[in-house]
Structure formats: structure tokens, C-alpha cells
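Me: Here is a favour to ask of a fellow structure person. Could you put it straight underneath, so I can go through it closely?

Assistant:
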Amino acid sequence: MNLSRSIQRSALGTTLWAFRREFAVCLAFTVLINVLMLTPTLYMLQVFDRVMVSHNIMTLLALTLVMLFFFAVLAFAEWARSRLLVRLGVRFDEVLGARVFSAGFQASLAHGRHQPAKTFAELTNLRQFVTGPGLFAFMDAPWTPIYLLVLFLLHPALGWLGVLFALLLLGLAVLSHRLTRARVEAALDAGTQVGTFLHGKLRNAELIEAIGMRDNLRKRWAARHRAYLGLNGQAVDAGARVQSLAKFVRYTVQSLSLGAGALLVIKGELSAGAMVAANVLMGRATQPLDQVVGNWKGFLGARKAFLGLDALLGEFPPRESGVVHAAPRAGVSIRDLVAPAPGRSEPILKGLTADFEPGQVVGIVGASGSGKSTLARALVGIWPGREGEVLIDGEPIESWDREQLGPFLGYLPQDIELFEGTIAENVARFGTLDPDKVIRACERAGVHDVILRFPKGYDTPVGEAGSLLSGGQRQRIGLARAMYGDPRLIVLDEPNSNLDDVGEAALANAVKDLRDQGSTVFLITHRRGVVMLADRLLVLDQGRIAYFGSTPQVLAALAGSSRRAPEADGDASPQPA
């Protein structure tokens, strides 16, 4: 099979194939370096067999000058190859880093359990291997047969001895693979799990300290860490055994090749110069294989990283740009909406169908676990594995270009996530800062005066995940972010769960203002005061629409003892499921 076709079948291989010219140049430098590595051998051969015999100083001077020139070229080639790989590593990160970031982002949306730290550690391992000494070892390995051929030219016995030693080292490489592969991969997985466990627990350090969980979690971490140390120790021990054996073979090669050369000199079948040259050449012939054995653990780590990244990039290819639509009016429809969940036999949402007119405030209520937050995530197009359709102005939400739709959409999830940066940057969604828009959004969310009381005002850092702010402050800043830029479609999931009376009054004013400007607002809440702001009310019960209609009539229906919808009164009447 054609090599290029084989590589291009791989998602990651396609990206690496784009660097084929750089790798080809690196390979050309490797060829030049290995050819010039014959310089010491040839120099010694000429000095012993020509200069020592002729006693010609001019010949020695000429040979020395040629040797120095070749060494200068060798040093330049090694410097150029290293410099090329440094730049290749930078480009590698620039090109592949963006792909890995996008694929990791999609994996987090789809699975929720994706570990970005592990993904970027794999990217680092792969980059370090393909742009470092590990790659040199595998590029130099094919030159072993060439050095062996030169040994055969000096004397067949030396050539066969070199073949024997090369096969021994090759066998050690195979042995290293069999002994260390499973151990290295298990140790890598265990190390990643320990890091993930520790990172996840430290993010909740305040809770852990407050309720005395530290010692219990320390014991769990210690158990995982001991398991990792055990696996890593087994991998290191297996590799060290092979390394020690390889070192023994290498030292034996040097001594036996010198002894074999001396024997051939005694028999008159080899000159003294060829004996010394053969000794050096034998070392050069076996050195690449010895380096392969030494870098085998790095190769296994890079191989595992390649397979992991390749699977990730294959599962989540680059998104195609969506269709660029006109600015949305934000009429929303759902058709047979089903939201499955991993580990559950029944979906959370079960065939929801409804139409929501532009410019309306739609309240979504229901008991805990009825699917309200799931519906909110489905409405903004982020519920994984969703079935059915979510339409914006009659077009599936998947057809919209997310970068175009984003400014027209506001979303406040139940778990408010702020990002490390300033308050202004978070409100402006880390885009171009428009001070007027930032202040307007914060005023509507009722948090402008609160922000001005901070020493740095809008330039106040929020800390990682907004850790430097209170729950109410995070929620109101998240609300301001949702309303930044006057979006046409806004989904607010429990926007008042952490608000005081002042904050709830500000929320009510903001919702009225959004309705007046023609925005479509979905408002999920348990508080009656906010529910009364809704034009229409949708009641969820165990993943199904129980009632949907005008707010007064739905509330009247809910207050009735039979929970049966009143007689239809046009489109305004609540519709029982």
C-alpha cells in the first residue's frame, strides 16, 4: 500500500503529512550527518595505512584539513537539523493545537467526561518525540546496514560479527517492547487518573476543609498514587533490565571487535589502521540500535499519544461552517424533541413539540427532575445525542453558523461558569470590549453598582471559575453576560436562585426590557413572582409537556384539583399533553 495513502487515512496522520517536506529536509540532513560520521574511520585508516608508512607530513596535513572541513560540515548539519526541529515543534503546536482544542471542546460537549489536560499532555508527548532525540534514533537506525556494508568491505569476518551484534540489539528492542509496552501504558493511564483525581478535588478545597473530608480524600489519593508508583516502578525496572543488557552488549561489541581486528592483523589479513577503523565503525553501526532501545519507552508513550489523539480527531473532525442567515427574529419551534441520557433506559425529554412566537417570554416550570434544564440546553443546541428538531425561524439550529448565531443568543445555565479574567472580559464574552454594551448589560442585570464598589471596578479579576466572587455576584454577572449585546434569543435557567430582593427586582425589569425590545426569552424558575412575567407558560411533567398556554390559564389549570386543561379557547388555552 502506498505510504502516503496509509498516513492520510488517519485523522492525525493527515495533519502530520502536511509536514512531510520539513521531515524530508530533516531526513536529508540525517543522511548527510551519517555519511560524515565515516570521517573519523577514514581518517584513522589513512593515517595508519598511508601516513605512518610514508612519513609524509604534507599528506597528514592535507588529510587533517579535509577532516576538519568535514567535521565543520557535520556540526553545521547537526545544528541545522536541531534548529529545523525546534521550528517544526512550534509549527506543530500551532497547527495541531488548534485542531486538538476544537476536538477536545466538542468531546466535552458530547461526553461531558473528556479530560482536556490528558489530551494536551498527549499532544506534548507526541510533539517532544517527533521533534527530539527519539526521532533521531529511528532516523539513524536504517544506517546500520550501510555501516555493516563498510565493515564487510574491510573484512567479511568483521561484517558478520557486526551483523551478529546488530541482531542481538534488534532482539533487545523486541524484548523491550514485549516487557515494557503493557507496563508503560498502564503507568501512563494511572498517572493521568491520579492527576485528574487531585485536580478535581482541589477545585473544591473549601468544601473539603469545611466538612472534614481532607483526610478521607488523602487516603483515596494515596491509594491511587501508590498504585501508580507501583506500575511506574515495574515499567522502569523492566526498561532498566533491558538497558543494562544493551549496555553489556555494547561494551562487548567494542572489545570483541577490537580483539577480532587484532587477530586478523596477526594473521596478516588486516592492516593496523583498518583494525582501529573497524572498531570505531562497529560502534557507529550498533549505536543507532542502542539508541532505539534507550528511547523505546518514549516511543511507546508517543505511540499511545498518537492513537489517543487520532481517535479524538477522527471522532470529532473540524466543524463545517454553518449557513449564514439573516439576523434571527427568534421564533423557536421544537419538533418531536427527545433527549436521551447515558445510563438511563428512558430519555429525559420524550417527544416534545411546541411553537414559541418571537418576542414572547415563555416560563418553563415543573418538578425537580422533570427535564427543565435539559430543555434549556436543547434549546441552545448543546444537549448531546439529541433527537428531533430545534428550529430558529424555521431553520434547524445545527444549520446556523455558531459564530454568527452566538451574538444573537444569550444563555445563563444553572451552574454559572465564569472564566479567569476581568469582570468586563467575562461580560463581553472575551470578545472586543465595548464599554457601553458592558455597562448597559450590567445595569440591566442590577450589578453595575456592585461592580463599581470593587477597588478595580470592571477590571476586577474574577479568579478561576469566578472563585473570588460570591454566588449572587457570579449569577448577576452571568446574567449580564447573557444579555450582552441585546441578543434576540435568551435562555435563563434559574436566573434568580442566588438573588436577593434587589437582584430579583433587577431581573424582573431586565426581562420586561428584553420583551419590549422584541427578544424571545425562556425563563426557567420556581418562584411565582418571576413566573408572572411570562406571556406563556409551559409545564413539564416527567419529560412531557403537561400544559402549555397563556400564563393565567395554565396557572388556573394547575390550581384545579383534577389537573385537567380547561376547554379550548383558541390558541391561548393551555394544551394538555
